[in-house]
Design brief:
It is built from 3 helices and no strands. The chain has about 80 residues and is mainly alpha-helical.
């Protein structure tokens, strides 16, 4: 996946996330909506992480296509 594709996916997921936040703020979110929101937040974090990996690899003269999506535990465990 190239940077443009990742950015496009981030934008699509962020739009859906915003819609689900709106439902939650109006107390109209279902359990499925809340679960979908949690899933979206993880996938968004994974996309941002992948984009950062690609940029870092490029900056240091490495192949950005060797960056890989990391698992949920890794991207949700950042403390930095």
């Amino acid at each position: 996946m190239d940077d443009a594709t990742i950015n496009h996916k981030i934008n699509e997921l962020a739009r859906e996330e915003h819609e689900l936040f709106e439902r939650q703020s109006h107390d109209t979110a279902s359990d499925a909506d809340r679960e979908r929101l949690r899933h979206l937040q993880v996938v968004l974090d994974q996309c941002w992480d992948l984009l950062r990996q690609r940029r870092a690899r490029r900056e240091f003269g490495q192949n950005p296509d060797e960056a890989r999506v990391r698992d949920e535990k890794t991207v949700e465990g950042y403390t930095g």
